[in-house]
Amino acid sequence: MNTVSDQKVHIISSTAVEPSSPTPHRLRTLNLSLLDQLFPTPLAHTLLFYAGCGGGGGGGSSSNESLSRRMRASLSQALTDFYPLAGRLTSSARIDCNDEGAYWVEARADLRLADVLARPDGTLLSQFLPSSHPETSPLAAMGCLLTVQITTFSCGGVAVATCSSHKLMDASSMAFFLRSWSARCAGRLEGGRAPPPRFLGDSLVRAKELPFMLSDYAGMESCATRRFVFEGSKISALKAEAVRSAKSGESTRFTRVELVLSLIVRCALAASRSVTGSSHHPTLLRQMVNLRNRMSPALRENDVGNLAFGINILCENGESTFEELLSNIRKEMVSFTKGAEASGSDSGELFSIACGSIGKAGDFFSKWKEESRFYRCSSLCGFRFYDVDFGSGKPAWVTCLSRMKNFVYMVDAKGGGGIDAWVTLDWRDMAVFERDEELLAYAAPNPSVAHRVMHPSRF
């Protein structure tokens, strides 16, 4: 918890932003799907930083005020299409689209953007999120589905933070919303209108009563969060090593996320063994995957909802190597993709796949209980967050935050090809993990972002 002396970001004002046009009565209720229901309650956070005039040396307060007015007005217009975001969550599977509004927060930062980018710090970054302030943190508990915080730096730079309910929006949905909103703000809409979102709700899979939810196992106590950056060249080297080590006949179509995740989990397991002195901790790794391009027919980017699902990678051997983890992840991904493609738009098949995955995880925890280790990964890679331009340039940096224990959060690194990974572990595990030589051979611990901001935006 930040003390008053630690607080660098201060709220100036906050208010609800309603849709510019009322939501028709026939759209006033959105019933959510099983996939929406399976997502945990905590908000999903996205942070976009935009450099000020002259790279952070000038003022620009009047232009920032103009930007804020444009963003707020265009948000109201965007909410006409994205009307559930202006509603309220009334249960785990229902949204009342009542036009109460998204929440808009304006803040100022007593520092320069360069100070943030020089050495990104999770504790400081959390101050740019409306969920971290006493004035606005209760909004989620009241059913608010979207809160936006606009923070102006002393140099003229701007941070745009979105906190959205995971009950409605996955990473692809949020990226599509941000691009649609920013295009409206910048006046880039062809024919005056962006491709409208299609809220799937329960059209694919209806919500069900489930006896077991994975969110029950998301501890947050005694954790430490660190950032590691994997450059594209390092990921290529890691892939080359993985391909050389692969067994004959195994798929070697490894993705960036699979490679980085396998290395991180390998090092996390080694750290846990070092701390506990035991290698007999079976592990469940749950990785989120995008369903849109894995269904038949494929869904579109403007299909809004939680079209992501978690695959389970079980490791009963606590000494799994990088190659073993990578092979298991690839096999599960191939198997899951085949199942999703075979199910097509058959809601019964999708429900069967979802329940089977949850049941498998439930059996794991029932069998191993406190002996087990549970790791999660969520990735924002490939969703074009760096294309979010409100009219004065693309982001200088995009990042995300999560403080859940044993959680790996990934986003595209600035410049393309690389990955920024935020890793949260027990603090004792982290003390060993962050010194792992194999990890440090491929990852840079929290390097500066400032040197990458070559062409700052103008506000």
TrEMBL record:
Lineage: superkingdom: Eukaryota
Gene3D superfamilies for this protein: Chloramphenicol acetyltransferase-like domain
Keyword Repressor assigned: no
Molecular function terms, GO-annotated: acyltransferase activity
Keyword Ribonucleoprotein carried by entry: no
A Pfam family: Transferase
Protein family according to the UniProt entry: Belongs to the plant acyltransferase family.
Protein name as it appears in the record: Acyltransferase Pun1-like
Source species of the chain: Rhodamnia argentea
Organism placement in taxonomy: Eukaryota, Viridiplantae, Streptophyta, Embryophyta, Tracheophyta
Gene: LOC115731189
